[in-house]
């Protein structure tokens, strides 16, 4: 708290950014993260100046690709949100990763992406 007010914290307390063995900087667990939705994601935007009509939250830029990821995307298409979902427990010191997917603007989300 600062002057009686809660300070904005861009990183959830469970996460940190540090050098990655995969590429550049990565997003790492500071404490154990249980399988389930993690409080970071992407927001859909209707202005076509953004690739794929999505604005990635700043933390999304630190999530590296893996062929054996510990996270996946959870799509809530009706409200335009994509959340990061831990698909298994993630241990302290472990980097959070997803499998990158490529698709064209206007394509429906692939069937293998979780949707609700």
What descriptors fit this protein?
116 residues, mainly beta, two-stranded antiparallel ribbon, 9 strands, 34% strand
Walkthrough of the structure:
It is a single chain. The protein is 0% helix and 34% strand. By secondary structure, the protein is mainly beta. It contains no helices and 9 strands. The protein has strands at residues 15-19, 25-29, 36-44, 54-56, 64-65, 71-76, 81-86, 97-98, 114-115. It has a 5-stranded mixed β-sheet, with no helix packed on it. A two-stranded antiparallel ribbon has the order 1-2. A two-stranded parallel sheet has the order 5-8. The mean pLDDT is 75. The protein has a domain at 33-88 and 97-115.
Please sum up the structure shown.
The chain has 116 residues and is an all-beta fold. The chain is 0% helix and 34% strand.
| Unreliable runs | none
Q: For the residues shown, what is the average pLDDT?
A: 75
From N to C, what is the helix and strand string?
Answer: EEEEEEEEE
Structural Rg: 15 Å
Give the secondary structure arrangement, pairings included.
Blueprint (H helix, E strand, L loop, with lengths): L14 E5 L5 E5 L6 E9 L9 E3 L7 E2 L5 E6 L4 E6 L10 E2 L15 E2 L1
Parallel strand pairs: 5-8, 6-9
Antiparallel strand pairs: 1-2, 3-4, 3-7, 6-7
């Amino acid at each position: 708290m600062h002057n009686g007010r809660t300070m904005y914290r861009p990183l959830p307390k469970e996460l940190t950014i540090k050098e990655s063995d995969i590429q550049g900087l990565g997003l790492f667990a500071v404490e154990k993260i249980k399988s389930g939705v993690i409080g970071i994601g992407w927001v859909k935007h209707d202005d076509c100046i953004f690739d794929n009509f999505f604005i990635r939250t700043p933390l999304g830029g630190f999530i590296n690709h893996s062929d054996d990821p510990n996270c996946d995307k959870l799509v809530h298409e009706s409200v335009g949100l994509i959340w990061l979902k831990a698909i298994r427990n993630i241990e302290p010191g472990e980097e959070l990763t997803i499998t990158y997917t490529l698709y064209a603007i206007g394509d429906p989300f692939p069937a293998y992406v979780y949707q609700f």
